[in-house]
Amino acid sequence: MNKLVYLDNAATTKPASEVVQEMLPYLGASFGNPSAFYGFAGKAAQAVDEARKTIAEAIGARQEEIYFTAGGTESDNWALVATAEANEKKGKHIITSTIEHHAVLHTCEYLEKRGFDITYVGVDEDGVVKLEELKAAIRPDTILISIMAANNEIGTIQPIKEIGAIARENKILFHTDAVQAFGHIPLNVDEMNIDMLSASGHKIHGPKGIGIMYIRRGVKIGAFIHGGAQERRRRAGTHNVPGIVGMGKAAELAVRDMEEAAKKVSELRDYLIEKVMKEIPYTKLNGHRTNRLPNNANFSFSFIEGESLLIMLDQAGICGSSGSACTSGSLDPSHVLMAIGLPHEIAHGSLRLTLSEETTREDLDYTVETLKGIVKRLRDMSPLYEDFVKKQK
Ligand code: PLP
Question: Ligand 1: residues whose CB is within 6 Å?
Answer without folding.
Answer: 71-73, 76, 101, 103, 148, 152, 177, 179-180, 200, 211
